[in-house]
Design a protein that fits this description.
The chain is mainly beta. The chain is built from three helices and 22 strands.
């Protein structure tokens, strides 16, 4: 019991300290900046890197450009080209492009077109840092054998007996109902459209459309990225793709036995640990509200990604998901984000060509 009281007292002191302090003075030494290199390399596209130097947390400087920067590209151990180094577009404090210069970094690009299997090496030289090398191998292209729906699960509003308080109004015919304002995202106009609807007991609310994506895999250990392209609910900035497939279990701290994986627009990564060298039926679903009878197209892109990019995304997602509260981070180390930049920080990853899978589905109210 004494031990518990001791830890509670420590937590209370830390909480009061963080709650009361408004101005923080720092009397230690300023940490030296580090080289920061980021860039996703894609088969069929050309090289690109964003390079800058880190800055001290109390610094107000927006100059993070690296002096006399040069980057050499080697492919399969042969020199290919010197990347062109330019000033980046400038961003304001909210992350949007702005006309006035307030945040500059180095942007590097080349003309070589990546091919499947290329062993890529960047040599980064500058006056500010020692020369560093970054190496990746460009992945191949996965094979999709089939993409289709497996079932459609109808989810209805509660009945009057289940939730009589939900139906608080009466329509012109004397039937219990629930008038409510709703909206949906129109993919053609890229806008949210609002409308008023009247909900009746037991009426269809939405459907869960379950999908199966059959993947033909190679014997080598591979990493995948599934990207929803068209048809899935949500908007351009947020897509609601869900799965309870065990391949996603490594994405979260907890198991998928009691949890669902919530998809993202730009990456839904998984490894082939469960099906090395074999084909696999990947299952996922989407919550879709039906507004009428029409045909709809669902499409996804499947990529191979190389190991460095996989580890980075895995650690970055774990970092975002490990929100244990401000107090916890005072006494515990947060998740470290993976980097493959030697003597620096950042990620240079590789992704293969997309294999697109598309299917048409008839929606009936």
């Amino acid at each position: 019991m004494k031990h518990h009281l001791k830890y509670f007292a420590l937590a209370a002191v830390l909480f009061m300290a963080t709650s009361c302090i408004k101005d923080v003075s720092f009397d230690g030494e300023e940490s030296a900046p580090k080289l920061v290199v980021n860039g996703l390399q894609i088969v069929g596209e050309t090289p690109n890197l964003c390079i800058e130097k880190s800055r001290f947390f109390m610094s107000t400087s927006t100059d993070v450009m690296v002096k006399n920067l040069s980057v050499k590209l080697y492919v399969n151990d042969a020199f290919v080209e010197d990347l062109i180094v330019v000033d980046s577009c400038t961003l304001n404090e909210d992350g949007y492009y702005h006309d006035s210069p307030n945040y500059k970094f180095n942007y590097c690009y080349g003309s070589y077109v990546y091919q499947e299997g290329d062993k890529v090496r960047f040599e980064v030289h500058s006056d500010d840092f020692d020369t560093t090398e970054i190496e990746i191998t460009m992945p191949g292209q996965p094979v999709v054998m089939d993409f289709d729906t497996t079932r459609v699960e109808r989810i209805c509003h509660p009945t009057l007996e289940e939730d009589p308080n939900y139906y608080w109004a009466i329509d012109s015919q004397g039937n219990p109902c629930c008038p409510q304002y709703s909206e949906y995202y129109d993919e053609e106009s890229h806008t949210w459209i609002g409308y008023y609807d009247t909900i009746y007991p037991g009426q269809l609310d939405y459907c869960k459309v379950h999908f199966n994506l059959q993947i033909a895999n190679t014997p080598q250990k591979e990493y995948f990225n599934l990207i929803p392209v068209e048809g899935f609910s949500g908007s351009h900035y947020y897509v609601q793709l869900y799965s309870t497939d065990p391949v996603f279990s490594n994405m979260d701290i907890t198991s998928l036995i009691n949890n669902e994986y919530h998809g993202k627009n730009d990456h839904n990564i998984f490894s082939d640990d469960l099906f090395q060298g074999d084909s696999y039926n990947l299952s996922f679903y989407d919550d879709w509200v039906y507004f009428g009878n029409y045909d709809k197209t669902f499409s996804v892109n499947l990529h191979y990604i190389e190991e460095n990019y996989y580890k980075y995304l895995q650690s970055f997602d774990a970092y975002k998901d490990s929100d244990l509260g401000e107090l916890t981070y005072l006494i515990a180390e947060p998740t470290q984000i993976y980097s493959n930049v030697k003597d620096g920080i950042g990620i240079v990853g590789g992704m293969g060509r997309a294999t697109s899978a598309e299917m048409k589905f008839h929606i009936q109210k």
